[in-house]
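Chapter review: from sequence to fold.
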Amino acid sequence: MSDYAVVNPATGETLRDYPTITDEELQQAITAASAAHEEWSRKAPVADRAALIARVAALHTERREQLAEIAVREMGKTYEQALGEVDFAAAIYQYYADNGEAFSADEPIELSDGTGSAFIRRAPLGVLLGIMPWNFPYYQVARFVGPNVVNGNTILLKHAPQCPESALAIAQIFDDAEAELGAHDSVYVNIFATNEQIATVIADPRVQGVSVTGSERAGSAVAELAGKHLKKVVLELGGSDPF
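The C-alpha cell string follows.
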C-alpha cells in the first residue's frame, strides 16, 4: 500500500491508494520547478504573478463545494468547517494578490548621517519545498504558497499522506490557473514523496529553502537536513491537536 491513501476516518477502511512518486519522477519535478523559476517567475512582473494567485483564489471559490467534500471525506471535518477553510484559503490568496506589489516594492532606508541612498530589495530565492499537515489541508498551503509565488519563488509541495485528494485538487487549480494566464506550468508542483525522497529534495542544490508545519519529530529531521545543506528553513511545530 502507498503512504498516500484516503482512509475512512470513522472505520479506518482504505478507500483509495495513490502511488508514491518514483525517484525519476521526483527529479523531473525538481527540474520543472527550477525551470519555472528561471523561465517565468523571476522574469515575470509582480503583477503577473499576483494575477496567477488571484485566479487561484477565484478557483478556490468556484470549487468550494467540491474542495469541502474532499476534506470531509479525507479527514472527517464537518461540511461547514470545510467550507469555511476553503473560503479562508481563497481570502489568503486574494490578500497577497491584492497587496503583492506593495509588499515587493523597494523600501527606502533613511540614513542617520552622510549622503547617498540605501534601500531594502526583496528578491525571490528560487524553488522552495513545503511540507504540509493534515488538519488544514487548504489553509496551510495557501499561507505558504500565496506570498511566495507572488514574490517570485516556485513551489514543490509535499502534503500529508492522509490528504492526497486535497493535494491533487490544489495542484489542479494551479494547473488550470497557469494554463489560463499563460504562466509556466510548474510554478506549483505536487509531489507524493516519501521521507527518504524528501531528504533528496532538501539536498538538491536547486532547492533553496524548506518550510514544514508538523510534529516536533518531523521538524527536527528537516532542520537537521536543512542545516547540513545550508538551506533556509521555517519550522511551525506542535502536537497532534487538530485545532
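Two observations follow directly from the output. The chain has a mean pLDDT of 93. The longest strand covers residues 207-215.
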